[in-house]
Structure formats: C-alpha cells, structure tokens
Amino acid sequence: MKKQLTTLIALAASMFILAGCQNSQSSSNHDQQIYSSIMDKGNNAVKNGNFAAADAYYQAALTTKKADAKAKIYAQQAHSLHNAQNAINRYSFAEAKNNLEDVQDNDNGSAKMKNYAAKMLKTLKVVQKNRKKYRNQVEIATNANDERNYKQAQSRIIDLLSKTEFHKKYYGDLLKQANEILLNSSKNLKTDTTPAASDNNSAANQSASDSQAHGETDQIKNPTANGKKITSDDIQKARKQLQEQGAQDAAASDSDITRAIQKAAADGRSTITPADAGF
Question: Where is the signal peptide (predicted)?
C-alpha cells in the first residue's frame, strides 16, 4: 500500500510538472485539469471497491492542490475503508467497526463511501451475531472431543459445516477450528476402544453442552499461559482490555478469553486484542 501510494503521488506530480511546461501561460487551468483527472481516478477506484487505490489517488490529488478540503476528506474516508477491509480479513471486527464509523462521521465526505460503510456496518452486525453462535458450537464440539465423546463432536461439526453462511470469509478462523475438530474426532472414532458412555451420561453431556450453547459460562480445565495458571482475575483483566479497544467482551465466553490470553502469551504479549478473542 505504501509503495502504491508513493508511486501514484509521484505520477501525479510528474503529470503536474509536464502540464505546466506545456502551457505556462495557463498554469491554473492545467492545475485544475490534473487535479480533476486524478480525483476522477480516485472516484472510479471507489466505484470498483478498490479503496487502497482510491486513497492513493486522493493523496496524489493533494500534490496539485495541497489545501483542498475535498481531496483531504475523501482520502481520509478511503483510508478508513481500506483499514476496515484489512481488519475484517484479520477477523478484527471491532476495529473494522470503528473505521467504518469514521467514514460516516465525515459530514462533507463522499456519499458513495458513506453508503458503502453503512452497508458494511449492517453486515458486521449480522456477522458478529453469527460468530457468537458459531463459536458456541465449536466450543461444544471441542469440549465433547476433550471428553472423548467423538461421535457427538463429529455430529456437531458436520451440522455446522452444512451451513452455507459458515463458509463465508468472515468465519475463516472458526472454519479452520471446525475442520481440525472433525479430523480429530473422525480419526479417534476409528481407533477409540473405550466403551460407549451410558445413555444417562450421554444425556447429561448433551444437556451440559446445550446449556453452554445458551450462553452459560464455560471453562477450560487447568488453563495456563507461559507456565502460569490463568485465573479469574486474569480473565477479568483481559475483558477490560477488550472493552478499552471498543470490543463487546460480553460476546466472548470465558473459554474465548482464556484462549485469547494464551494466543497473546504465545506472541510475547501481555495485552490481548479483539482478534485474539475471535472478534
């Protein structure tokens, strides 16, 4: 992105200088022509949903009219939309939401970019609701797998994988987890010789799993990070970190937070991010 921006700005500057040499007597007209041409390219990039290019073009337009308010606002909007797209690709939906709201807050900004941001915010609202539901299902299957109830784990994941929505880009990290659970449970079903649990135990396990699906607090047995036990205080501290970053921590279970702490610790960080928690 930085290389592309530099290239386009340099190109715009070259066009500006060349135009000035060709007709020095009407430099102001040439300035406006170059500016309009670059702005048109930026607008076309917006129309095509290429906000990285749009940002670069609007920044390039500022080399011909440095104090131009329109180019400055448009560049800010395109930059925020590009950041939002990148955040979504990293599953950092709280960050994406903040960037999209920034686009809408520009009162004099591009109507097209505002409309795009509004549509994305509407989509993110649905995505975050679905992610909470899908995370619960993955968590249930994970617990069943840990309890060596491989058939239940397999059944849960197969049901989840049958949903078309689950295969969209917004759930790629959860899809990866689901596939790993399915592979593990299927493999263990072929090799496990442990007698099947009684119907009563199976019913109890199913009841407990269903309780988790309805949002009850779940646990990971003996969780640790960097060799130290993860306590309830650690979980509350992590939730506060999410809140400070604009994430709705209530959408994450204690298991989600625990895994987020472990991910951060593995990266050498003491602060978790929304992406660590699956937002």
Answer: 1-19
